[in-house]
Amino acid sequence: MYGDPATIRKILTELGDTWAVVGLSDNRDRAAYGVARTLQRFGKRVVPVHPKAETVHGEQGYASLEEIPFKVDVVDVFVNSSLAGAVADEAVAVGAQAVWFQLGVIDAEAFARTREAGLDMVMDRCPAIEIPAL
């Protein structure tokens, strides 16, 4: 299962609170914008990762995970499934503790690689839906 309750709970409550949100821009019509705001309401620091490197919800954006000058705990992925595996690999490379693929973002091979690297991972779920239930 790609989103077992124990892993979801661990990522949302036990790991650190700095979340890099890949695909987050200042576009209020995109799902990432609302999900990031919900994560902030629950005490998470949200770091936008987008080619435009925009400031979103008061947080400086970065063009890539590698450019973030501090440790991120969770990498939340809002990109097309065909691009998500590369983002998961970057998350491993920068030392994240977990990767979260949003609803509709599915890459079983990336899931397996990420888990083999020792990271927790959830796929095809939304933290903004899960976190209020905890």
Quick structural overview:
This protein is of the alpha/beta class and 134 residues long. It has helices spanning 5-14, 31-41, 81-93, 108-116, 127-130, and strands at 18-22, 45-49, 74-77, 98-101, 120-122.
Can you tell me the overall shape? globular
- Strand adjacency order, main sheet: 2-1-3-4-5
| Low-confidence spans | none
Rg, alpha carbons? 13 Å
Count up the helices.
5
Count of DSSP E strands?
5
Order of helices and strands: HEHEEHEHEH
Quaternary state, please?
single chain
Structural class based on helices, strands and sheet pairing? alpha/beta
In terms of DSSP E residues, the strand content is 15-25%
Average pLDDT score: 95
Salient structural properties:
134 residues, alpha/beta, 5-stranded parallel β-sheet, 5 helices, globular
Descriptive report:
By secondary structure, the protein is an alpha/beta fold. The protein contains 5 helices and 5 strands. It has helices at 5-14, 31-41, 81-93, 108-116, 127-130; strands at 18-22, 45-49, 74-77, 98-101, 120-122. A 5-stranded parallel β-sheet has the order 2-1-3-4-5, with helices on both faces. Helix 3 packs parallel to helix 4. The longest helix is centred in the middle third of the chain and has 13 residues, at 81-93. The radius of gyration is 13 Å and the shape is globular. The mean pLDDT is 95.
